[in-house]
Recover the amino acids of this structure.
């Protein structure tokens, strides 16, 4: 995990008891976690009367540093040890390190859920409707007699609430080909899982 | 032997041989399994080898397969007796065990390889991915309406997993700023900036328009700063240090260089364009060039402001026009159109004549102004030449006045002047001497200083190089440390994986037991050896004693034998006794030898019976029969054709 120089500087400020008292530190970390996760809490530090006496510029800097640290640590799935080494380098006392770890590790699943949401994806198939039609004849040909499958895939698309339909028709051979491809894909996944 | 068999079977299973679970020793191996296992081993050891892993049905094909297996094993360096197709096809336990021991030893060792070459982070990542995937694959499918916003609860590690794409969001980031260099007291923050920090700047989580973009923006900002820092460090290490400038100076120069480069490029392009197109474009470019120049000189963006002012002016002007026209419209138009036309014509003519008058006047005035300015210049020149003249004349007048003053007492004055000249010459000489005396040490000092300077410079150069070296070393050690950290992590994870394998500790325990056993046996062997040695010694001493006593008695009796007949008889008996005993000893020794031979033979019988000769022979005869049949059918086929 790498952190930028300004972020580290701000974290050092957070560890300085001259700026942030021990009592406020825990609250600040909790606020930082909640500010990232919940939209209604995005300005929670500004609204909290507990932080009235702290210099606003320092408070903003410290908050920014902690938020960056929390996001990066959640991104890298850092454990207690990794965080402790970073905070020790930032001259944190062991009490504060423990407090940070306690709050952060309890919030880590939520943070990772949030970060896991940030992604792009192909449409994700969740369901399928199908129909088998029998094509008897048309105006040009008296006798055709072939089977036609109408397939309607239900897919989930990023940033869309509703399921989207993907419709196509195919002959038996094409459908078999599709099924073969799907089997190949499944095998591929299993192979990767076996390593 | 059981232990060895278990190890062999375990390693055969680990390389992917298909062995039944209840196979415990090599005795249970049939020809089929032996062939398959050997082929698998060879495939793992040699890599690309073209052998069928199942026993072919035809006898001749079997024979060929066995022969090629034997060849391959011998190519690997097997030295345990003669090896042929019969070893594999008509196996006996001991030989097969030997071959498998050899092959298992030859197997490439995975664990040692893993310890030698460090696995990259990518390998670890791949492993993590595969374990996660196998977790996910082991779960049954569940419909999307059972998941809360695409999240499925599970029992394993993180407690949840994301499925589907319905709640994903794209990675969008925007600029985020935090107050910086607050902790550093040495850098002063401007008042405006600090007041902005205090009152107006929003908190980081409140800066993006949409809250969900906060996390990407924070990550982006962090990554951007790290990347910039790294880039700068690289450049500073490579070019910056060698230039021996301070960082600010280096940055300033770089900026200048870049601006100049841009200017040159644009100039070149504009020249190229000039040939092709009109002047409009080039004049535009010229303007840009000028703006660049002013920027680089003053560092203040004036042009932007001026342009802004310009547009502003234009806008206002338009507005005024509009209001004017609106006012004009407001005046009621009562006159008829013809009158209006006339009025307008008159007005235009009047204005035109006025304009003409005015322009003529202007031209006249212009000409006059030009004339006057030309006159003024001429007059100024005249004044300056006159002033010079007067100065020269003043100087000459002064000199002449002096000489005239001196004229009345010419002789004395000349003498005085001479003395003045002499003294001044003397003084000059003195000064020159003094100068000389001052000059020499000064020059020396100068030289010394110059030398010192050059030395210092070379030292600085050296120090610079040292610094560079140190930087490289620093980087190397940092890299090393990082690599080792990673390696340690890997090894720890590897170790955690390994501990699941209980066999290992069991093996080591067994090995230790075996070693202890061997030690005990060795001690016993040593004891027995000592015993035999002592027995041998005793035998030797006894036989020596016997020899000596015999010779002594022999002599004694021999001496008396000449005198007495009875003694003679006794002597003969003695000789016979001696001979008989010798024979007895010989027989005892012979029985010992025979006993040993018997034991050897028994062992040999056991070995031979182990070799399953009978069953193998039966097999061979059967195979021979089959081969004959095959040959017969082949011949029949050939004949039939």
């Amino acid at each position: 995990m790498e952190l930028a120089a300004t972020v580290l500087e701000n974290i050092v400020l957070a560890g300085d008891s001259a700026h942030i008292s021990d009592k406020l530190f825990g609250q600040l970390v909790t606020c930082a976690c909640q500010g990232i996760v919940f939209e209604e809490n995005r300005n929670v530090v500004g609204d909290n009367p507990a932080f009235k006496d702290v210099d606003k510029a320092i408070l903003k800097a410290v908050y920014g540093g902690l938020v960056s640290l929390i996001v990066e640590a959640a991104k890298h799935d850092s454990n207690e040890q990794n965080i402790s080494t970073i905070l020790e380098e930032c001259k944190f006392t062991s009490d504060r390190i423990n407090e940070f770890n306690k709050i952060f590790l309890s919030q880590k699943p939520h943070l990772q859920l949030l970060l896991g949401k940030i992604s792009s994806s192909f449409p994700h198939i969740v369901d399928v409707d199908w129909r088998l039609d029998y094509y008897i004849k048309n105006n040009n040909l008296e006798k055709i007699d072939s089977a036609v499958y109408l397939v309607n895939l239900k897919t989930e698309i990023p940033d869309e609430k509703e399921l989207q339909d993907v419709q196509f028709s195919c002959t038996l051979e094409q459908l078999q080909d599709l099924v073969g491809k799907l089997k190949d894909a499944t095998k591929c996944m299993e192979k990767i899982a076996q390593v | 032997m059981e232990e060895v068999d278990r190890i062999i079977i375990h390693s055969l299973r680990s390389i992917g041989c298909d062995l039944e679970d209840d196979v415990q020793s090599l005795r249970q191996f049939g020809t089929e399994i032996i062939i398959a296992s050997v082929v698998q081993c060879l495939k793992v050891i040699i890599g690309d080898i073209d052998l069928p892993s199942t026993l072919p049905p035809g006898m001749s094909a079997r024979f060929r397969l066995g022969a090629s297996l034997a060849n391959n094993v011998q190519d690997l360096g097997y030295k345990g007796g003669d090896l042929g197709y019969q070893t594999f096809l008509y196996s006996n336990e001991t030989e097969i065990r030997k071959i498998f021991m050899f092959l298992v030893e030859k197997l490439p060792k995975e664990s040692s390889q893993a310890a030698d070459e460090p696995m990259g982070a990518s390998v670890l990542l791949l492993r993590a991915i595969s374990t996660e995937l196998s977790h996910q694959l082991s779960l049954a499918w569940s419909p999307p309406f059972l998941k809360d916003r695409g999240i499925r609860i599970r029992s394993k590690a993180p407690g949840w997993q994301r499925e589907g794409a319905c709640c994903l969001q794209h990675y969008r980031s925007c600029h985020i700023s935090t107050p910086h260099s607050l902790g550093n007291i040495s850098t002063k923050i401007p008042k405006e900036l600090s007041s902005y920090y205090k009152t107006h700047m929003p908190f980081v989580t409140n800066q993006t328009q949409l809250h969900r973009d906060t996390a990407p923006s924070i990550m982006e900002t962090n990554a951007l700063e790290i990347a910039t820092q790294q880039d700068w460090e690289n450049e500073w290490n490579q070019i910056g240090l060698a230039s021996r400038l301070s960082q600010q100076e280096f940055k300033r120069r770089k900026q200048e260089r870049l601006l100049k480069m841009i200017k040159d490029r644009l100039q070149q392009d504009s020249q190229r364009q000039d040939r092709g197109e009109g002047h409009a474009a080039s004049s535009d470019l010229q303007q840009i060039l000028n703006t660049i120049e002013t920027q680089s000189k003053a560092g203040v963006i004036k042009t932007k402001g001026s342009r802004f002012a310009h547009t502003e002016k234009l806008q206002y002007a338009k507005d005024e026009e509009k209001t004017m026209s609106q006012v004009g419209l407001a005046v009621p138009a009562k006159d008829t159109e013809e009158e209006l036309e006339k009025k307008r014509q008159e007005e235009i003519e009047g204005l035109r004549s006025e304009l003409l008058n005015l322009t003529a006047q202007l031209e006249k005035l212009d000409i006059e102004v030009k004339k006057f300015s030309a006159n003024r210049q001429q007059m100024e020149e005249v004044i300056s030449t006159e002033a010079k003249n007067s100065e020269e004349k003043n100087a000459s007048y002064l000199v002449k006045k002096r000489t005239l003053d001196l004229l009345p007492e010419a002789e004395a004055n000349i003498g005085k002047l001479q003395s003045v000249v002499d003294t001044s010459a003397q003084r000059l000489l003195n000064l020159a001497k003094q100068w000389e005396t001052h000059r020499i040490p000064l020059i020396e000092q100068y030289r010394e200083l110059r030398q010192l300077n050059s030395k210092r410079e070379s030292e600085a150069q050296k120090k610079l190089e040292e610094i560079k070296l140190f930087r490289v070393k620093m980087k190397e050690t940092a890299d090393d440390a990082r690599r080792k950290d990673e390696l340690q992590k890997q090894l720890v994870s590897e170790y955690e994986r390994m501990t699941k394998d209980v066999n290992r500790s069991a093996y080591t325990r067994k090995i230790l037991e075996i070693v202890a056993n061997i030690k005990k046996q060795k001690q016993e062997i040593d004891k027995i050896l000592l015993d035999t040695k002592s027995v041998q010694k005793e035998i030797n001493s006894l036989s020596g004693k016997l020899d000596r006593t015999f010779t002594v008695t022999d002599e004694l009796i021999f001496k008396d034998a000449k005198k007495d007949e009875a003694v003679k008889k006794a002597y003969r008996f003695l000789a016979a006794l001696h001979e008989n005993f010798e024979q007895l000893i010989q027989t005892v020794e012979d029985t010992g030898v025979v006993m040993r031979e018997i034991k050897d033979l028994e062992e040999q019988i056991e070995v031979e019976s182990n070799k399953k000769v009978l069953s193998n022979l039966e097999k061979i005869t059967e195979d021979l029969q089959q081969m004959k049949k095959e040959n017969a059918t082949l011949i029949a086929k050939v004949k039939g054709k």
